[in-house]
């Protein structure tokens, strides 16, 4: 696995642990030669993530729509900054450039990106692994809702929910599982949404 797209907030939130883990994830990717593909911003968790990777001499590809270049303050120190015309182009390029995906804490935009990439997997448009880092239980309520939709409401099939690999322990564990899925050499138990606690 030589590239990962990370979806995360353009704000830093209120918990210092989110900032710390975003930076540590970036540093880890940089040290291990895994290209970071992300939303191209210099602020919020996006900025900390990118700065972490750059501090470890990592390759960082940012993809940002022209209309958000000023709002999200496009990062000018990246290995590559791709400016797109639309959000759809942004998401398509990020999907093409990455071998796997990770969701960190964030808001509407982060969930939009995460659910779109999961929907594409459900529809068979790609077979790349999708991970969610549930830092300090940030996504507990979302995961409860997803299980409710599967088990009680019948809107998502269990096999499609299993496309989402969840870890609350460490990004290293999550990356190990994503990498194993990419290579097809996994002897690890798959971390599904019901295993995160």
When the domains are counted, the total is 1
Give the CATH level 1 class: Alpha Beta
Overall pLDDT level:
90
CATH fold field value: Rossmann fold
Description:
The chain has 197 residues and is α/β, with parallel strands linked by helices. The chain has a single domain (3-195), classed as Rossmann fold. Helix content is 43%, strand content 16%. It has seven helices and seven strands, in the order E-H-E-H-E-E-H-E-H-E-H-H-E-H. It has helices at 16-31, 44-55, 87-97, 108-122, 140-153, 158-161, 171-183, and strands at residues 3-7, 35-38, 60-65, 80-84, 101-103, 130-133, 164-167. The chain has a seven-stranded parallel beta sheet with strand order 4-3-2-1-5-6-7, with helices on both faces. The chain starts with a strand and ends in a 14-residue tail after the last helix. Mean pLDDT is 90; it is low at 186-197.
Task: Provide a compact summary of the structure.
The chain is α/β, with parallel strands linked by helices and 197 residues long. Helix content is 43%, strand content 16%. Helix 1 links the parallel strand 1 and strand 2.
């Amino acid at each position: 696995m030589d590239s990962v797209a990370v979806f995360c907030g353009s704000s830093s939130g209120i918990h210092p642990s989110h900032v710390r883990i975003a930076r540590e994830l970036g540093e880890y990717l940089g040290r291990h030669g895994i290209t970071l593909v992300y939303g191209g911003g210099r602020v919020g968790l996006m900025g900390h993530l990118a700065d972490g990777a750059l501090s470890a001499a990592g390759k960082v590809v940012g993809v940002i729509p022209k209309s958000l270049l000023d709002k999200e303050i496009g990062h000018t120190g990246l290995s590559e900054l791709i400016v797109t015309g639309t959000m759809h182009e942004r998401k398509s390029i990020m999907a093409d450039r990455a071998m796997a995906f990770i969701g960190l804490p964030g808001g509407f935009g982060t969930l939009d990106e995460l659910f779109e990439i999961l929907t594409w997997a459900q529809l068979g448009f790609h077979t790349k692994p999708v991970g969610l880092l549930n830092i300090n239980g940030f996504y507990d309520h979302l995961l409860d809702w997803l299980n409710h939709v599967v088990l009680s409401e019948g809107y998502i099939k269990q096999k499609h929910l299993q496309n989402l690999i969840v870890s609350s322990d460490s990004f290293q564990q999550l990356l190990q599982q994503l990498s194993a899925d990419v290579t097809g050499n996994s002897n690890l138990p798959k971390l599904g949404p019901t295993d995160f606690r």
